[in-house]
Amino acid sequence: MFESLSERLGGVFDRLTKQGALTEADVDTALREVRVALLEADVSLPVARDFIKAVKGKATGQAVTKSVTPGQQVVKIVHDELVRTLTGEGEPDALKIDNPPATILMVGLQGSGKTTTTAKLAKRLKEKNGKKVLLASLDTQRPAAMEQLAILAGQIGVDSLPIVKGESAVQIAKRAKMQANLGGYDVVFLDTAGRLHIDDVLMDEVQAVRDIAQPRETMLVVDGLTGQDAVNVATEFNAKVGISGVVLTRMDGDGRGGAALSMRAVTGKPIRFVGLGEKMDALDAFEPERIAGRILGMGDIVALVEKARETFEAEQAERMAKRFAKGLFNMNDLKAQLDQMLKMGGMQGVMGMLPGMGKMAKAAEQAGFDDKMLRRQIAIINSMTKKERANPDMLQASRKKRIAAGAGVEVAELNRLLKQHKQMADMMKKLGKGGMMKQAVKAMM
Ligand code: GDP
C-alpha cells in the first residue's frame, strides 16, 4: 500500500546508510528528500514539516552508539517518528461493546466502503469475540443499499433488521435498538446513508440518529485512495457528529498512503482498521509498528540499532557499577546520573515511581528541584573541560566563572552542584571502602 513512498525513502536511506561518517549537511539533504517524498505521498504540509523537525531534533541530540553507523541511527529515528505519528491512544482494534446491546454507528460518504466495512467488522466480532450481532441499514434513499447489507449479513451468518418500507432513519434506529434489546444481541451496527458529498441534510440526519442511538463508537469509513480528501472528510465528520475512530479502506490499492500518515495529526482521531480488499475478511487492525515497517522497509536496520543501543546502555551501566564499587564518583558519573533521571521522566517521573512520594515530588518542585534544574546542572557539567570533570577539586574562582558563564547560570548554582557532588562522592568513598558498595552493586545486577 505504500509502494512509492517506501521506494523513495528506501533510496534516500540506502545512500545514507552506506556512508561511514555523516555530516550535518548529509543529514539535512536526506531529510529534505524525505520531506519531498512525504509531500508526494500526499502527507499534509504541516504534518510533513513537524515530522522533519522532530527527526532533525532527535538526530542532532543523539549519542553515537558504537557498532552502528550514523546513517543507520537516522533510519531508526525516522522509524520511531513514523510510529509516533501513526499512533493513537488505546487499542485500535478493541471496539467498545460493553453494556450490551452496544450500538456502533457507521458513517461516511457513499462509495467509501461503508456497507462492506460494516459487514467485515460484524464478522470479526462474531468470529473473534463470539458476539451476537445485528445489522441495520438506515439508507432510506437507496433500497439497493439496504438489500446489499442484508445479503452480506446472510453471507457472514449474522442477523439483519427486516426492511420496512417508508420508515425514516431515526425510526429504523429506534426499531433496531428495540430489536437488539429483545433479541439479546451484544452489538447492533447502524449503517447510515452516505452522500456523494458532505451536505447539511446528511449531517442533520446522522446527528438525529446519533442522539437517539447513543452509540458506543462512531466509526468513520473513508476511502484511502482519496488521500488528502480523506483527511478533510474526517475533519468535517468529526466536527459535525464526533467520531471515535477511522477505518481507511482500499489500502490494498496503490494509493499514495499520505492519508494514513496525516489522519491522526490533523484530525486527532486514530485510524483503527484498514480495509485491504473486497472479501469479508480483508480487514486488519491498524498497527503503527507494522505500517511504519512497511513504509520504511528497513526492519533489519531498526532491529540492529535497537540491539546496539541496549548493548551500549548495558556496557555503560556495568562501567559505572565498577567505578562505584571502587568508591569512584566524578562529574562524569554525576552527569550520567542526571541524564538517566531525565530519561526516566525527570524529577516527577523518578519520584512518582516510588510509593508515597507524590507529595514529596510536589514539595520538591516548589523548592525549585525540577527538570529545569536538572537541565541546568547538566549544562554546567557540559561546560567543564575533561580534566575538570575528572577532578572537580581543581575548580578555582576563574574557572568557576568561566563554567557558570558557559552554562548561563550564577556561580552560586555551580557551587551548590559541587557541594552536592562532594556529598555523593564522599558517600561513595565510604561505601566503597567498607566493601558495602560492592555488595550492593552485586545485589542489583
Ligand atoms: P458504501 O457506499 O460506502 O456502502 O460502499 P460499499 O461498501 O458498497 O463499497 C463500494 C465498493 O468498494 C464495493 O465494490 C466494495 O467491494 C469495495 N470495497 C470496499 N472496501 C474495500 C477495500 O478495502 N478494498 C477494495 N479493493 N475494495 C473495497
Automatic annotation (TrEMBL):
Keywords: Cytoplasm, GTP-binding, Hydrolase, Nucleotide-binding, Ribonucleoprotein, RNA-binding, Signal recognition particle. GTP binds at residues 108-115, 191-195, 249-252. It is found in: Cell inner membrane; Cytoplasm. Its EC number is 3.6.5.4. GO terms for biological process: SRP-dependent cotranslational protein targeting to membrane. One of its GO terms (cellular component) is signal recognition particle. It is a peripheral membrane protein. InterPro entries: AAA+_ATPase, P-loop_NTPase, Signal_recog_part_SRP54_M_sf, Signal_recog_particl_SRP54_hlx, Signal_recog_particle_SRP54_M, SRP, SRP54, SRP54_GTPase_dom. It catalyses: GTP + H2O = GDP + phosphate + H(+). It comes from the Bacteria. One of its GO terms (molecular function) is GTPase activity. Involved in targeting and insertion of nascent membrane proteins into the cytoplasmic membrane. Binds to the hydrophobic signal sequence of the ribosome-nascent chain (RNC) as it emerges from the ribosomes. The SRP-RNC complex is then targeted to the cytoplasmic membrane where it interacts with the SRP receptor FtsY. Interaction with FtsY leads to the transfer of the RNC complex to the Sec translocase for insertion into the membrane, the hydrolysis of GTP by both Ffh and FtsY, and the dissociation of the SRP-FtsY complex into the individual components. Composed of three domains: the N-terminal N domain, which is responsible for interactions with the ribosome, the central G domain, which binds GTP, and the C-terminal M domain, which binds the RNA and the signal sequence of the RNC. Belongs to the GTP-binding SRP family. SRP54 subfamily. Part of the signal recognition particle protein translocation system, which is composed of SRP and FtsY. SRP is a ribonucleoprotein composed of Ffh and a 4.5S RNA molecule. This is Signal recognition particle protein. It comes from Gemmobacter lanyuensis. The lineage of its organism: Bacteria, Pseudomonadati, Pseudomonadota, Alphaproteobacteria, Rhodobacterales. The gene is ffh.
